[in-house]
Amino acid sequence: PRSVGRVPERRVPEPPLWEQLAAQSAAMPQGERLQKVLAVRGWGSRRVCEDMISEGRVTVNGDVAVLGRRVDADHDVVEVDGVPIGVRPGLVYYLLNKPEGVVTTAHDPQGRPTVVQLVPDDPRVYPVGRLDQGTEGLLLLTNDGDLAHRLAHPSHGVDKEYLAEVEGHPGGGAVRRLRDGVELEDGMTAPAKVSQPSPGVLRITIHEGRNRQVRRMCEAVGHPVTRLIRVRIGPLRDATLAPGEWRELTLAEVRSLVEAASGSTRPVR
Ligand code: URA
């Protein structure tokens, strides 16, 4: 945990601690445990975060929190030593609009342009998941290993939405097959959300992240992809980034991503 100048006024909880605890829990029976919220934001293990709470260093909406307190991380103002918890110092999160032809890797032995060359090189960041060389669109890069790991795990991963230009005009049968699941060489795909906003363009939302999945799905129903763009990663969208442009995530976006990545798998339709 960082040390900072301003230390909040310590208000000793009064009277008995358990009464406070009961009142706080009754007021917020459904929030997340404070130590978990702190741990998820990178303030240390749950044990370390419990100690910070016990030491009176953590406030919720200005009041010193007691252990067992639950919070609504979106609305409550949580501070450690008087500073909003935000995200751990030193972590960066970039949203890149990957252009076609750039490879999703930290280093390419063949010397092709890579996504990490498109964002600042210090601190070093890594792509979360991958887009094929020919695919365009949103890609997240970060040095937050915990979040990257969770997002990469299929059971915690988030939905991804693609626009696919395909050969021909898929009929109702092909769209239904894509929705219900198609047989690929590595097994059946999970149900997907699929619509056709204009003839020959499919909007496909999937939760799995198998290799070249969207291309293989479309090919399997007889409509090979001619152009593929990822337009959403979980809660993240941005239609204003030009190809090759990147921006940092806002704090609200980091929070919603952390939240999305800590949920369990939900079907996408
Ligand atoms: N599905 C694909 O086929 N390619 C990608 O790059 C991403 C998803």
Describe the 3D structure.
There is one protein chain. The protein is elongated, with a radius of gyration of 22 Å. It has 7 helices and 16 strands. The relative contact order is 0.14. The chain is an alpha+beta fold and 269 residues long. The two termini are 40 Å apart. The C terminus is likely disordered. The site of uracil (URA) has 8 residues, from helix 6.
Question: What is the helix/strand order?
Answer: HEHHEEEEEEEEHEHEEEEHEEH
Proportion of residues in extended strands: 15-25%
According to DSSP, the number of beta strands is: 16
Distance between the termini: 40 Å
Shape: elongated
Helical amount among residues, as a percent range? 10-25%
The whole-angstrom Rg is 22 Å
Named once each, the bound ligands are: uracil
Query: Biggest β-sheet, characterized?
Result: 8 strands, mixed
Looking at how many chains there are and whether they match, the oligomeric state comes to single chain
Which residue ranges are poorly predicted, with pLDDT under 50 across at least 5 consecutive positions? 12-22, 264-269
Number of helices: 7
What is the typical, i.e. mean, pLDDT? Answer: 85
Sheet/helix structural class: alpha+beta
